[in-house]
Design goal:
63% of the residues lie in helices and 3% in strands. The chain is mainly α and 140 residues long. The protein has one domain (14-35, 47-130). The protein has a two-stranded antiparallel ribbon with strand order 1-2.
Length: 140
């Protein structure tokens, strides 16, 4: 007796949300963080960056659009897998020229943080979307 493996994405309609969110995550990373590649030197000799807080906040807020699109259609796995894959690939590509090798830790943190936050947000969106809508009372 042979058993077939269960695939999380059985058809194009189930794979599309993962591809859309992955492509969106890559594009939004490039838009918000891709152009800022230099560190800012402070007067005390320390450095910050290369990203400003507003850039990361902009990335997070704009990522809510594709995540909402996928999660509101009950494609939670697509939202989580796609967003995580997109941000992980983008951060790996962006940071892989670091000579210290510590970029692997940063990429891992991006991956784990994206999994955790996107899962929570996706379930919240799906739960809010599944609440019954109040109906207006019928008057005669």
């Amino acid at each position: 007796m042979s058993q077939r493996l269960q695939h999380p994405f059985k058809s194009w309609s189930q794979l599309r949300p993962a591809l859309v969110t992955a492509a969106s995550a890559l594009a939004l990373w490039a838009l918000w963080l891709g152009s800022d590649q230099r560190r800012d030197l402070l007067p005390d000799g320390s450095s910050t960056g290369p990203y400003e807080a507003w850039q990361v906040l902009g990335l997070v807020l704009t990522l809510l659009v594709p995540v909402y699109w996928a999660a509101s259609r009950r494609h939670i796995a697509g939202a989580v897998v796609g967003t995580t894959a997109g941000l992980t690939v983008a951060s790996f590509y962006d940071w892989s020229d670091d000579a210290s090798g510590l970029y692997v830790i940063g990429v891992t943190m991006v991956m784990l943080g994206t999994i955790a936050v996107t899962t929570g947000v996706s379930f919240l969106i799906a739960a809010i979307g599944s609440r019954p809508r109040p109906t207006a009372p019928v008057t005669s």
